[in-house]
């Protein structure tokens, strides 16, 4: 992961299956690959960012229920489109917004940063350790046979998605189930992560400009995590694939 070209090559292999776009033609994913970060646990800066996100969520929820926030409502519709029940399996944005008024979790510096950006910009956002990836990320509708490693009641187990479920995967396993509901154990970010992939996901009514602003905010915070940080990004949508270095 030492060269920007390597990041670009990884992103060039990323894809969204046509069947996913048939569900939601308005779906867009901004992929941000980063390396050269100095590893660290959470710090005062990441905690301050979480506090700002918590305050923003409290303000947003003063007059609007979580499920009525436009981007949350559209993600609920997307979940129903492949058979998931959003009341039981909430998209990552809704789950964070529900937790924010009483306090967002403090996990590690990278996770704290992307959780805060997710809440501040009201966009689902996930992150994985690139050193633990096997191949390029792909968003597909599952066959139901793909393995997904997770933890249930403190025990590591292998689950399988439902047939037709929308999942992120690499060449080996499912990385994230139900679009952006639950991430796999294998690729979780840690205090030692130096290279990571972040995925920001948008549906209407979130505009391309709003998605770009969220991406720029994330990149700004990540770029401060070491003198040799490198970033590449790529937009995946139904009608365009754009890539650039940053």
Description:
The protein is 33% helix and 24% strand. It is α+β, with helices and mostly antiparallel strands and 246 residues long. The strands form three sheets. The chain has a five-stranded mixed beta sheet. A five-stranded antiparallel beta sheet has the order 3-10-2-11-12, with helices on both faces. The protein has a two-stranded antiparallel sheet with strand order 5-6. A hairpin with a 4-residue loop joins strand 8 and strand 9. Helix 3 packs parallel to helix 6 and helix 6 runs antiparallel to helix 7. The longest helix is centred in the first third of the chain and has 17 residues. It is globular and about 45 Å long.
**Rg calculated over all Cα atoms:** 17 Å
Helical content (DSSP H or I, runs of 4+): 25-40%
Structural class: alpha+beta
Order of helices and strands: HEHEHHHHEEEEEEEEHEE
Mean pLDDT: 93
Strand order of the largest sheet: 1-4-7-8-9
Overall 3D shape: globular
Please report the number of helical segments: 7
The description of the largest β-sheet is: 5 strands, mixed
CA distance, first residue to last residue: 15 Å
Strand content: 15-25%
List low-confidence stretches.
none
The total beta strand count reads: 12
Provide tags for this entry:
5-stranded mixed beta sheet, 246 residues, alpha+beta
Helices and strands, with pairings:
Elements: H1 4-12, E1 15-16, H2 18-23, E2 28-35, H3 44-60, H4 70-81, H5 92-99, H6 109-121, E3 125-129, E4 138-141, E5 148-152, E6 155-159, E7 166-169, E8 174-177, E9 182-183, E10 196-202, H7 208-223, E11 230-237, E12 241-245
Parallel strand pairs: 1-4
Antiparallel strand pairs: 2-10, 2-11, 3-10, 4-7, 5-6, 7-8, 8-9, 11-12
Helix pairs in contact: 3-6, 6-7
